[in-house]
Amino acid sequence: KLSVSATILRLQENNAVARASAPAPGEEGAAPPASRAVSGRVMGITLAELTADMRAKFKVEPGVRGLVVTAVDSSSDATGKVVPGDVVVEMAFEPVETIGEAQALAMQAERNAARPVLLYINRGGDMTFRSVRPRKG
After folding, report:
1. Is 123 helix (H, G, I), strand (E, B) or coil?
2. How far apart are CA 42 and CA 7, in angstroms?
């Protein structure tokens, strides 16, 4: 059931991203769909899969697994708890390496919005937990 939800969420997120980044009629330069599949937003946190470029940009060691934080919405509960360059290794004690996995876990948490999601974070080699409440609405 979760993988079905993740697939649906990923398609919805990609369609929304595609609409937001699609050029107006007559314009050129839309990113290919494959490039959009490696990042997405979860609970006000913009995450990206750990490609070679992302590892270099955020100085993430080769053996680290997870999703790198590229931005945090100022209205998110994650503000001040999670910073760009952090690597989310687990969400709710589940390993995450794809945006679809993170979105499925966030959707599960949103069903019970009173409960925060525990993130296991790698911050420059130091491991820490952060509790983030999902967005309401």
Report:
1. strand
2. 15
